[in-house]
């Protein structure tokens, strides 16, 4: 029977796999490799995800205080809501609105007021 060696993607060391699907020499190498990969992806997305997360956090906290209250655009911007970085468009009873995860912002017509809508 021929011994088949594999190369660990993290350390480049040769090893004999215990299972046919094994890709890493050790579980620690697998964890480190996947953490590095996720970290790199998070860094690439940070310029966009950061403002979305901040906006979501602000909208969530304001909605929990009073879900019926409307807020001035400048107040929301001062709290950290980024009107240019929503992460999707949500279809609502009010039409398609910019959304930050599970909260959308609806501009009340002819005003600088915004209503927070939980999706």
Q: Can you describe this structure?
A:
The chain has 119 residues and is of the alpha+beta class. It is built from 2 helices and 7 strands. The chain has helices at residues 27-65, 73-79, and strands at 6-7, 14-15, 70-72, 88-92, 95-100, 103-107, 113-118.
Brief overview:
With 119 residues, the protein is α+β, with helices and mostly antiparallel strands.
Secondary-structure blueprint of this entry?
Layout lengths: L5 E2 L6 E2 L11 H39 L4 E3 H7 L8 E5 L2 E6 L2 E5 L5 E6 L1
Antiparallel strand pairs: 1-2, 3-7, 4-5, 5-6, 6-7
| SSE sequence, one letter per element | EEHEHEEEE
Percent in helix: 25-40%
- The gross shape turns out to be rod-shaped
Distance between the termini: 59 Å
Radius of gyration: 23 Å
Structural key phrases:
five-stranded antiparallel beta sheet, 24% strand, 119 residues, alpha+beta
């Amino acid at each position: 029977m021929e011994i088949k060696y594999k190369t660990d993607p993290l350390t480049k060391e040769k090893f004999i796999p215990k299972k046919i699907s094994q890709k890493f020499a050790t579980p620690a190498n697998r964890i480190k490799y996947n953490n590095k990969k996720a970290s790199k992806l998070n860094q690439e997305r940070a310029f966009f995800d950061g403002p979305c997360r901040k906006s979501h956090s602000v909208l969530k906290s304001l909605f929990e205080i009073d879900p019926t209250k409307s807020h001035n655009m400048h107040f929301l911007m001062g709290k950290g809501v980024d009107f240019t970085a929503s992460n999707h468009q949500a279809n609502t009873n009010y039409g398609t609105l910019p959304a930050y995860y599970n909260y959308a912002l609806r501009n009340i017509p002819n005003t600088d007021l915004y209503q927070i809508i939980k999706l």
